[in-house]
Specification:
single chain, 98 residues, mainly alpha, 4 helices, 76% helix, 0% strand
């Protein structure tokens, strides 16, 4: 993450990197963990580690919102973010796969 990039757009590259590692780690779960550790180490090495962590959280949050909007749009005009969230809740919280 480049210091001073600012705002959600400046935070998105690292968030996308972490989530891409997550999606690519099905065959190698350690890959995701290594990516997270590297991102955290990079942030800890910055002059303001707390700011780096806040940017990561903001980036992940912004990415979640963007993804949710995109999923709702692809689902059709009658399906909005609330319906997508409800489906996610049903699939992963209420009735998690065992």
């Amino acid at each position: 993450m480049s210091p001073g990039a600012g705002g959600p757009a400046g935070c998105l590259p690292v968030a996308i990197e972490v989530m891409t590692a997550y999606t690519d780690s099905a065959d190698d779960p350690g890959f995701f963990w290594q990516s997270v550790q590297r991102v955290m180490a990079d942030g800890a090495g910055r002059s303001n580690p707390a700011e780096a962590m806040a940017e990561l959280v903001l980036g992940l949050s912004a990415l979640c919102g963007i993804t949710l909007d995109d999923l709702a749009e692809r689902s059709g005009p009658e399906t909005g973010p609330r319906e997508v969230l409800a489906a996610i809740r049903r699939a992963y919280v209420t009735d998690p796969a065992t």
